[in-house]
Design goal:
Elements (H helix, E strand, L loop, with lengths): L12 E4 L5 E6 L5 E9 L12 H8 L9 H10 L3 E6 L3 E9 L3 H13 L5 H18 L3 H13 L14 H6 L2 H11 L6 E6 L3 H12 L23 E6 L6 E10 L6 H12 L1 H14 L3 E8 L6 E9 L4 H17 L4 H13 L8 H13 L6 H10 L3 H11 L6 E6 L1
Parallel strand pairs: 2-6, 7-11
Antiparallel strand pairs: 1-2, 3-5, 3-6, 4-5, 8-10, 8-11, 9-10
Helix pairs in contact: 1-7, 3-8, 9-10, 9-15, 10-11, 11-15, 12-14
C-alpha cells in the first residue's frame, strides 16, 4: 500500500459540531454504502464495584426503545433496510455504530440519534434484558478463560480501581440495579461534547457534516460531568498467584503479567514490537514456538499488550492441560526473561516489524475497519498522520528499545498469575 493511498491529514475531514463533538468524515466512493462509528464518555470507570455492570446495562438499553420507535419497530425498520445499529460500553466510553446503503442514511441516522439521545428505557425490556445478562454472566462465570481474565484484573489492580472488576459486571450487582439507576447514569454520565463520531463511505463530507449537526449538534449534557476516579496503579512488588477451582473442566486457562502502559504513552510502539516478538508473530511468537510447538504444553498460548486510556496489562495467556500448568508457567517466565536480557536478533526483529506493517491493509480494507481505525486515532489523539507514519515508527524500533521496554514493563519476580480450571 503506497503512502498516498493511506488516509491522512489531506483527506480525513474534521469539524466540531455545535456542542463540541468532533466529527470526522472519510469519503470512499467505491461502494454505495456508509458506516458510522462513535464514542462518548460513559463507561465502567464511572460506576462503582457495588454497581458493576451499570454502564453496560445502560448502553444495552439504548436500543430497546426511543421517543419515536419501540424496540420492535426499531428492529423491523433496521432489518427491512438490511442495515445494522448497535451500542456497547467499555471501560471509558459508550460506543455506537450503524451501517447501511447510502440511500438509507437519513433513516438509520435518525434511529441511531434518537436511541442515543432520547431512549425511553421501557420497564418490560429492562426486566427482559436483565434476565438475558444474568444468564450470560452465569455462563461467563463457568468459563475458564473468562474467570482467569477476571481474577488477573483483581490481582493486578487495587480493589478500588475500576479495571479491577469486569466491565459487564457481577450477577449480584446486576440483580440489584434499578431502572432509575439506568436513567440517572444516562442523564449524568453521557457527555456528547467530549465525544467523537466518524463516518466512512459513499458520502460527500459537507453534506454529511450537515446531517451530523442535525442529529447531534444540539445535544448537551444536562449536568456536570461524572468525576473519574484515580486511575493510577502502584507497581507490584512481588508475585501474586491465585487458582480458582472450576470443577468438571478439562482445561486450565492462565493469565500471567502485570500492568504496563496506556495507549498514548511514547513507549507504546517499542512495546508493541516487543509484544509481537514475544507472543504474536507467526504461530504466536516465541511463546507459541516454545511452549506449544516444541514442548507441547499448551493448546494455545500468546501475549497481549492491551491499549486503553489508563495503564493496561501486558500479559501472556494460555490454555493448558491441568497437569502442565506449572511447567507452562515456568516456560512462559523463561521466555519473558529472555526478552528482558537478550537483544532480539536483527532478522527476528525485522520479521516482527514486517508482520505489524503488513497487517495494516487488513485494518483498512472495509469501511467499518477504516472507521474503527479513524475512531482510535481521534479518541486517543494519535495524530491524523498516524496511519501514514505507522510503518516508519514501527521500523524505527531497535533491539535496544525492545530490551528497554521489556525490562521496564515485564518482570519474572513481580507479576500477577491467575489460573482457572480443575
Amino acid at each position: 500500500m503506497k503512502s498516498h493511498s493511506i488516509p491522512g491529514p489531506e483527506n480525513i475531514v474534521r469539524r466540531r459540531l455545535s456542542n463540541g463533538m468532533l466529527a470526522v468524515v472519510y469519503e470512499n466512493h467505491s461502494l454505495p454504502t456508509w458506516v458510522i462509528n462513535g464514542l462518548i464518555p460513559g463507561g465502567s470507570v464511572l460506576e462503582t464495584r457495588e454497581t458493576a455492570g451499570l454502564a453496560a446495562l445502560t448502553a444495552q438499553m439504548l436500543q430497546r426503545g426511543n421517543v419515536r420507535y419501540t424496540f420492535e419497530e426499531i428492529n423491523e425498520r433496521v432489518e427491512s433496510l438490511g442495515a445494522s445499529v448497535s451500542f456497547g460500553s467499555g471501560r471509558h466510553s459508550v460506543s455506537f455504530a450503524a451501517k447501511s446503503l447510502v440511500e438509507d442514511v437519513d433513516t438509520v441516522l435518525e434511529i441511531l440519534s434518537l436511541s442515543l439521545r432520547q431512549p425511553t428505557f421501557p420497564e418490560d425490556q429492562f426486566v427482559l434484558l436483565k434476565g438475558q445478562i444474568l444468564t450470560a454472566l452465569q455462563e461467563r462465570d463457568m468459563d475458564t478463560q473468562s474467570v482467569a481474565d477476571m481474577t488477573f484484573d483483581r490481582l493486578a489492580y487495587p480493589e478500588t480501581h475500576p479495571y479491577s472488576w469486569p466491565a459487564d459486571g457481577y450477577r449480584e450487582a446486576i440483580e440489584e440495579l434499578s431502572l432509575d439507576q439506568v436513567r440517572d447514569f444516562h442523564d449524568r454520565c453521557y457527555r456528547p461534547e467530549s465525544g467523537v463520531v466518524v463516518v466512512v463511505g459513499d458520502v460527500m463530507a459537507d453534506e454529511m457534516f450537515g446531517r451530523l449537526e442535525r442529529a447531534f449538534g444540539d445535544w448537551r449534557g444536562h449536568t456536570e460531568p461524572c468525576p473519574e476516579p484515580d486511575l493510577s496503579v502502584p507497581p507490584l512488588d512481588k508475585a501474586l498467584r491465585e487458582h480458582v477451582a472450576l470443577p468438571d473442566k478439562m482445561q486450565a486457562d492462565l493469565v500471567l503479567g502485570r500492568v504496563a502502559l496506556d495507549r498514548k504513552h511514547p513507549d507504546y510502539f517499542p512495546a508493541a514490537v516487543a509484544n509481537t516478538v514475544l507472543g504474536r508473530f507467526g504461530m504466536m511468537g516465541r511463546l507459541g514456538e516454545r511452549v506449544r510447538e516444541q514442548q507441547g504444553l499448551a493448546y494455545y498460548v500468546y501475549s497481549s499488550l492491551e491499549a486503553n486510556s489508563a495503564p493496561s496489562p501486558w500479559i501472556a495467556i494460555a490454555g493448558v492441560n491441568p497437569a502442565n500448568v506449572d511447567l507452562a508457567v515456568a516456560s512462559i517466565l523463561e521466555e519473558i526473561e529472555r526478552l528482558r536480557t537478550e537483544p532480539v536478533p536483527d532478522e527476528e526483529l525485522t520479521d516482527s516489524q514486517a508482520f505489524i506493517v503488513g497487517s495494516m491493509p487488513l485494518r483498512l480494507e472495509t469501511n467499518a475497519a477504516m472507521a474503527r481505525s479513524l475512531l482510535d486515532m481521534a479518541w486517543y489523539d494519535l495524530g491524523w498522520d498516524y496511519l501514514q507514519r505507522l510503518g516508519e515508527r514501527v521500523r524505527a524500533v531497535t533491539p535496544d528499545d525492545v530490551l528497554r521496554v521489556a525490562r521496564k514493563y515485564l518482570s519474572t519476580e513481580a507479576y500477577a498469575l491467575a489460573i482457572a480450571g480443575p
